[in-house]
Amino acid sequence: PSTPKLQLQLSIPIPSRDTSYYYSDGNTVLLVENTLFKVHRSALTKEKSTFDSMFSLDSDLRSSSGSTNSSVTVGLEGESDDNPIRLQGDTADEFRSLLWALYALPHELEVAMTTKAISLKLFHLARITHKYEFRATEGWALDKLKALYMRPTYSHIDDAEGPSLVQLTELASLCEQRDLLEAATARWKRLIASGKDIALAIGIAERLNLRALLGLAYHAMLLQGREVWDTDPVLTRAQRIRLLSGHYTLGRLCERLPNEPPVLQHNPRCTGGAQVRCNQAWAGLWRSTLDMGKQVLPLQYADAIGKLMLAESILKALVEREIPTQGLLDGMPWCKENALAATAGKLKELQESLADYFTDVV
């Protein structure tokens, strides 16, 4: 019978040499996951990075071991397959992408840019260069990714060969790339609008503190109804509680809306008694606009965003005389456009603060 030690050895897979980046004339062996890479230190130190410090320390250790005990051969890390430098927390694909960027010839890079799998390769490259501080290469990879994801012809069909939207969003946040984050957020918004991956969007937005996306995702899930919240396997108990909190606070906001018209910035010509009459007319117009919205399209109790958007559309139609005004605008001859701007401002303010309505119950 085999001993426990032998069983443990048999259960540990033997590292294999990478088929592309194990050079016979390389001078450094690295182990990433279960793959051995043998490369040239000069390639890894071509650009200033964390590897500079790593290899400088290694050189000091070699010098020290040579001077203190020259009669004994010391097997230092990186000299052989049996004692490689172990990189923790990286994947073989990420390290392979780094070596591709460091070793590839210009025409090879150009050809690679035309392949379907290039977005995943660039994603891996951006992650690992950020970790090891290859600043120039990281910047190049991120620029290429931005160009790829922000091009007009990009579609969801391209996603099959690339990183997931969660991975892309995490990378943009990690590397503090606003343009790439905006591109990723725009794709989340399209998914949310079509009713897809809403709970997933809530999770990533909470984890990365993406407030605008978080509010939008919570609001979309709110409108799905409690039957959906209770059965969605991705939502946590804490998130369901926040949805209940949002339903309550937004519902109360909807109840107050008719009596709380947005602050109106008056036209310079609207002064004195005219301004008093204008404010009274605006309060009446605001209530009437919300009432018309209920008749045109009944919305859910807590759908404050929908009600404000509908009010904005109706008010615009009134101001532009697309529907009969019924004398509602007579008391504010100079401030009709300002009323429209105030409504748009109210809607924007709510959209930007939407996440604040979905809070933990204290």
Protein described:
The protein is mainly alpha-helical and 362 residues long. 59% of the residues lie in helices and 6% in strands. The protein has 16 helices and 4 strands. It has helices at residues 4-11, 41-44, 50-68, 92-103, 106-112, 118-131, 135-149, 165-174, 178-193, 198-208, 211-224, 226-231, 237-256, 272-296, 304-319, 336-353; strands at 16-22, 28-32, 35-39, 85-87. The chain has a 4-stranded mixed sheet. Strand 2 (28-32) and strand 3 (35-39) form a beta hairpin. Helix 8 (165-174) packs parallel to helix 10 (198-208) and helix 15 runs antiparallel to helix 16. The longest helix is centred in the last third of the chain and has 25 residues, at 272-296. The model is unreliable at 70-74 (pLDDT under 50).
**Discrete helix count:** 16
What class would the helix/strand composition place it in?
Answer: mainly alpha
Task: Give the overall silhouette.
Answer: elongated
Helix fraction?
55-70%
